[in-house]
């Protein structure tokens, strides 16, 4: 494996890792540590030969988990570590070498993303201890959206909140939207045009892209704004907080938990946050699952329609993420609710998409195109890390 970059994505209870070689198609050693800090903490992944590995890590925290990941690297030495950092605020828009000054700056931004950045930074600290001489690079989820114009990123709130507190829309899933946008520019015969991307995983967001740059997106100050997600509500009336507080005496922490962990597909269905489970239950006439899928698709179609306002022209829509890549019926339902844009899905091509493969699923002609493109955030983070290291110092 040539000059691999170790990509690390630390969440509050998990660490995803991938050793990404410089050759794009070369096999990767990758995996996931789940349930950090719990007795049943476990590392699962694949080794260099594609064989599955699974290891109990009993109660491992970030540091023990990172050591276990290092042992899984089979003696391969990364040339650098690329970290996914969720929030870069307004200060960080490009990949940035992580030194003590940058880390101090990032700690101040953590207030903007209390559910994400502290975990990302714990991962950086553990990785720096294990690989003290390797360059460590931060790649921000917000970075790709730094090209949003003020009309898209400002909330209709008093100016001082923006100026003094950084209250604005930032957008997330930037590495995914950037990767998919570059791929569709390569694959389609309409490069650098107007594209909408629907990233549909556990977190979901849409993005409008004009000439390769993000011009609007559905997530905002935090990754809670916008679409219905696995356990996140997406948009609700901003008056809801005051209402729940007055009516039920709920604290802000309680409301935060409700909106981030108990809502979305899970809250609507009362069953699961997993789309596969919901599709199965809906087929068996489970009312909650049926409603959850209906609201998910309608809200997604509404978001895509709204984002066309950001584009001078619509060249096409791309679906990505676990749901976007695999759930043909969800794609069909969403496109069905957008009859005004001349989108025409090919039922055969849509049904025939193969997991993990890129493909076009519209009926052809001069209409806006419809693509399914598997996302690869790790490839983007590794590429940005390499780009930074290869840029000569000023
Ligand atoms: P994450 O945001 O955690 O990376 P993923 O991109 O893996 O999440 O997406 C997870 C979602 O994708 C889950 O809701 C899961 O049910 C859904 N999904 C995965 N495969 C399928 C499938 N074959 N059909 C429908 N949904 C699927």
TrEMBL record:
Mg(2+). Can also accept Mn(2+). Mg(2+) binds at residues 9, 377. The record marks 173, 232 as: Transition state stabilizer. It is found in: Cytoplasm. The active site is at residue 141. InterPro entries: Ac/propionate_kinase, Aliphatic_acid_kin_short-chain, Aliphatic_acid_kinase_CS, ATPase_NBD. Its cofactor is Mg(2+); Mn(2+). Its EC number is 2.7.2.1. It holds the Pfam family Acetate_kinase. One of its GO terms (biological process) is acetate metabolic process. GO terms for cellular component: cytosol. It catalyses: acetate + ATP = acetyl phosphate + ADP. Substrate binds at residue 84. ATP binds at residues 16, 199-203, 274-276, 322-326. One of its GO terms (molecular function) is ATP binding. Pathway: Metabolic intermediate biosynthesis; acetyl-CoA biosynthesis; acetyl-CoA from acetate: step 1/2. Transmembrane segments: none annotated. SUPFAM superfamilies: Actin-like ATPase domain (SSF53067). Keywords: ATP-binding, Cytoplasm, Kinase, Magnesium, Metal-binding, Nucleotide-binding, Transferase. NCBIfam families: ackA. Homodimer. This is Acetate kinase. It comes from Halomonas nitroreducens. The gene is ackA.
